Each structure stands twice: as structure tokens, then as C-alpha cells.
Amino acid sequence: MKIGITCYPTYGGSGAVATELGIALAARGHEVHFITYQQPFRLPNYLPRVYFHEVEVTRYPLFEYPPYDLALAVKMHEVVRDHELEVLHCHYAIPHATSAWIAREMLRETGRDIKVVTTLHGTDITIVGQERSFHTITKFSIEKSDAVTAVSSHLREETLRAFGCSGCSVEVIYNFIDPALFDRRAHTSPFPDIAEAGKRVVMHISNFRAVKRVRDVVRVFAQIHAQVPSVLVMVGDGPERVDAEAEARLLGVHHDVRFLGRIDSVAPLLAGADLFLLPSASESFGLSALEALACGVPVVASDAGGLPEVVREGVTGWLHPVGDVQGMASSAIDVLADRSRWEVASAAAAADARARFAERDIVAQYEALYSRTLALIRA
Ligand code: GMT
Predict the structure, then answer these.
(1) For residue 167, what are the domain limits?
(2) Fewer Cβ in 10 A, N or C end of the chain?
(3) 257: part of which helix (H) or strand (E)?
(4) What pTM does this model have?
(5) 39, 125 in Cβ contact below 8 A?
(6) Do both 257 and 303 map to the same domain?
């Protein structure tokens, strides 16, 4: 198949999933064209059958707000036409699915067709899509897609609740991991100094937006730190980083908190972690939690959104109500202080991630969806 993929190329779960999907599809013999404003952060420079088409937005004094959505639609139209793509797979509804709809309408004028598959990732539905000004266009874009997927059952239900979905269905296709990459045994410890000091590594990875509640990460860690010799490794960057740094100083744990900034390749870091914290206010799936589990890192997280679908309560991790710093700290201390308990949870995490979220199985679900959607053309 010839497939176009559009995503947000910078740091973020949806961009990571879209890119890993494209790479996996190309490895299975498909031709994949990424159409976006920047090379996706997880995309290597060259891979057979993978192409990158940069969307350039015209700057003109009249355009106080340069029209990216239109530039994207024009580029989609051009790439579909010139490379005879069959499917445009949009990750994140706004504006990608809207631009794809425009491109499809333009193509129809010339007697061509393209199938539009939209994958909903979370904030496109839970935050952005429910903004009053975006609600109608989000609903429209979902309904005009030829197929719609959501990354968890929770997000599917939330989509149907918030938008309804006349004439379409939302299929759940979970996010996935490459079991060979997200493997504890495949990497050497990135933190030998912490291990030599006899301390455990607690980790958090995100874009440090408000929804991630990074101050709770530091608060939970402060309680762990009081009981278990440990270091908190914070990976990523974003608007709440300053607050998290201030919280660490306020709680007097800043000497054992390391802010690494944005790092694209997280598998080697996760392979050196003992516990992953994700106390988000909402999380449609929690890709970083899955990546941690696959690396044999038990997860302590909030009992929010799709996280209960990813983390098996009491087996691969522990879930607590949003904001329950005490409960999260207590679960974290229990598992970190008991080596044999940690080993059981770590092994269960790695096994469960492979059993339910292996790249091979999930990518096959997308291939089947593309085939079913393409069959609709010919019907
Ligand atoms: O969480 C973010 O801020 C980034 C966002 C995105 O669009 O990249 O992540 C969403 O999509 C990820 C991949 O499907 C999910 O794992 C995240 O749970 C989801 N974020 C939220 O729902 C807050």
C-alpha cells in the first residue's frame, strides 16, 4: 500500500506513535510518506520506502496567522496526486483530519479518491476538541473521515459522549512498543553513578504540560526519598518545568532530582529506571507508561482515562486517584523497598507489554483497517 501519514512531528506521544507506525509499515513493505512541517523526531534520516514531505507555510505581512491548515491540505493533495497514495492517515484530529478532508475534496474534482483514516490520541478530543470554538469542526472532521480509531476504549467512549458520531464508528487500536528496543536487557545502565551509590532511579517522561501534574511527581518523589535512597530523573521539557524545579527546592530534594531536558531516544533511559511515575490529570493512553512497562519498570500512576487499560492494577503497577500523592508514594515505597516484590512486578510488566501491545500485532490491526477502508472505495 501507499500511505501518507500526518502528525505533530515534535515531542509528544501522538507524533511518536505515528512515526513508529510509519517505520513499521515500511519495514513490512509499504511505501510511507510523512507529510508535516518538520522531520518527525523519531524518524531516522533515511529508511527504505520512507519519504518526508515538508509543509512550507507562506509568510506574508497580511497573514498575521499563517494558514498552516491550508498549506498542509495543498501538500497532502500534491503528494497524494504525485505518488498515487491510497490512504491518508491523520494522527490528531485538529487540524490534520480537516486538512485531509479539504485535500480529498480537491482530489475528487480531478476524479481521484483517497481514503482518510483519523486516529484520535486524546487531547484532540478531551481538551482541544471540546473548546467551544473547535467543537463543530472536530465533530465534522471525525464524521468525514472514512475510518476513525481511538487509542483506548476510554477515549472511544469519551469521543462518542462528547461528539456523537453519526454514520461512523470508532475502532479501538492500542498504541504499541517495539519489544526489541524497549527491553531492559538491550541497554547498558545510563546511570552507573546512581547505582553505585546504592540508590534507586525513579523516572518521569513528558512534555511538562499542566495535564501531567509534574509538581505531583516531585511531591511523590519527596516522600519516596524520605524512605528509600533514590534519585528522580525528569525527562522532557515544557511550561511546568520551572514549577517542578521550584517544588524540588521547596521540598529540599533538589540535590537528588535531575532534569535532563528533552531527549528523543528514551528506551536506554527507561532501561535504567526502577519506577515510573505518571500522575496525570487525564491520559487517553499513556504511551510513556507503556514504554516503561516494556522495559520492566513498574508504574505508579493516576487512575485516569485509559491508564487502567495499560497498567494492570496490583500486577504491573498501582493506580490512585488524581492528586493522591500519599497513596502513590505509599505504593512506590512498598515496591521499591522489597526487592523480590519489585522483581515480580518488573517481570510481569515486561511480559504484559509484550503480550498485549507488541508492534507486530498492533500494526497488523492498522493494515487490516486500511484494507477494509480501501475496499469501501470499490464497493
Ligand atoms: O500527552 C500529551 O500531552 C501529548 C499527546 C499527544 O498528542 O502527543 O499525548 C496523547 O497521545 C498519546 C499517544 O496516543 C497518549 O499516549 C497520551 O495519553 C495522550 N495524552 C493525553 O491524553 C493527555
Answers:
(1) 2-176+359-378
(2) C
(3) strand 257-261
(4) 0.95
(5) no
(6) yes
Domain count for the chain, please give it: 2
Q: Is the predicted pLDDT of residue 167 greater than 80, yes or no? A: no
**203 within 8 A of 269, measured Cβ to Cβ:** yes
Q: Does residue 367 share a domain with residue 330?
A: no
Residue 236, ligand 1, Cβ within 6 A: no
Residues 164 and 255 in one domain: no
Compute, in angstroms, the gap from residue 169 CA to the centroid of ligand 1.
Answer: 21
How many whole angstroms from 101 Cα to the centroid of ligand 1?
A: 23
pLDDT in tens, 340-358: 999 999 999 999 999 999 9
Look at residue 97 and tell me whether its pLDDT is greater than 70: yes
Cβ proximity of 106 and 73 under 8 Å = yes
The pLDDT of residue 251: 98
Check pocket membership of 122 for ligand 1, CB cut-off 6 A: yes
- C-alpha of residue 22 to centroid of ligand 1, in Å: 18
Is 210 within 8 Å of 239 (Cβ atoms)?
Answer: yes
Report the pLDDT value the prediction gives residue 133, as an integer from 0 to 100.
79
Same domain, 333 and 368: no
